[in-house]
């Protein structure tokens, strides 16, 4: 049976750029982008076209930032998609390659961030689980100084994005993908967890603030109801554009009331905010 043709719409570099400008994206600004390529329609050129369109809109003075998380550099005891036999855990920990900003691929965040990560001139932050990659005039300011024991807090690119007045662009992605909300978790009472990972000297553990995207969809619904969020269509995707600072301030108040987490969590590490723990690809 023949494969049916795509339903579209046909999306090009120029059409993406025009619709992003119509949404409100502007030259010279800094955008933290969460994008779902498949939601856009039939994109001529795929993720490369999306990145080029974003760079066209931002211009030479703008900065494009994406999450490039690598949640597979974690304790195999937590892997669930797929799990691995317990008998392998010790050897996996002993032989897992350490994080290398230039080589370690992103995981669980989609093809657009991976395209940005490998783009000529891209810079990437130093945290082995929750790194960000950036292109453009302000890239170094955003990614430099990401502390190895601060996934998404004050010593992470999220705080730098807040400082420079960046905005979040959700391009076919939901609020459950909004990493900016995690910065708020560091500003309200939160439990600490022990996180295992490969380090320069072998397997290591560090203590970090517990992070969770639980109820971020509800948080986003209320944020959009109460605050100014630009909404529109880009290709076939629903798109949203709003300031990082507004999202963080609102989330800090909302989470303290609706999802308090100052109690101790179960012992052990927690997954990166992109989703549940994952092992290596089959």
Give an overview of the whole structure.
The structure is a single chain. The model is unreliable at 264-282 (pLDDT under 50). It is built from nine helices and eleven strands. 29% of the residues lie in helices and 20% in strands. The longest helix is centred in the last third of the chain and has 15 residues, at 244-258. The protein has a seven-stranded mixed β-sheet, sandwiched between helices. Strands 1-3 form a two-stranded parallel ribbon. Strands 8-9 form a two-stranded antiparallel ribbon.
CA radius of gyration is 19 Å
Largest sheet: 7 strands, mixed
Oligomerization status of the protein chains? single chain
Listing every helix as H and every strand as E from the N terminus to the C terminus, the arrangement reads EHEEHEHHEEHHEHEEHEEH
Number of helices: 9
Please give the order of strands in the largest beta sheet: 5-6-4-2-7-11-10
Global morphology = globular
The amount of beta strand, in percent, is 15-25%
Low-confidence stretches: 264-282
- Which percent bin holds the helix content? 25-40%
- The average pLDDT value, as a whole number, equals 91
């Amino acid at each position: 049976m023949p494969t049916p043709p795509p339903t579209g719409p046909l999306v090009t570099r120029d059409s993406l750029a025009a619709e992003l400008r119509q949404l409100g994206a502007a030259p010279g600004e800094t955008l933290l982008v969460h994008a779902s390529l498949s939601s856009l329609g039939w994109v001529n050129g795929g993720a490369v076209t999306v990145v080029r369109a974003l760079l066209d809109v931002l211009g030479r003075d703008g900065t494009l930032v994406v999450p490039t998380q690598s949640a597979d550099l974690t304790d195999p005891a937590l892997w669930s998609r797929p799990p691995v036999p317990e008998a392998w855990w010790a050897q996996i920990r002993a032989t897992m390659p350490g994080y290398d900003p230039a080589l370690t691929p992103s995981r669980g965040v989609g093809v657009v961030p991976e395209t940005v990560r490998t783009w000529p001139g891209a810079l990437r932050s130093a945290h082995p689980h929750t790194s960000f990659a950036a292109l453009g005039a302000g890239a170094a300011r955003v990614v430099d100084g990401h502390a190895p024991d601060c996934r998404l807090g004050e010593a992470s690119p999220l705080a730098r994005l807040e400082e420079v007045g960046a905005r979040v662009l959700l391009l076919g992605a939901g609020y459950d993908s909004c990493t900016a909300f995690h910065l708020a978790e560091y500003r309200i009472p939160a439990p600490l967890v022990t996180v295992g990972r490969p380090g320069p000297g072998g397997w290591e553990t560090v203590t970090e603030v517990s992070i969770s995207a639980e109820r971020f969809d509800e948080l986003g619904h209320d944020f959009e109801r109460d605050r100014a969020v630009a909404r529109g269509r880009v290709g076939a995707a629903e798109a949203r554009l709003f300031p990082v600072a507004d999202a963080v301030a609102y989330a800090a108040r909302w989470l303290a009331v609706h999802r308090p987490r100052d109690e101790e969590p179960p012992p052990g590490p927690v997954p990166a905010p992109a989703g549940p723990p994952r092992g290596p690809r089959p």
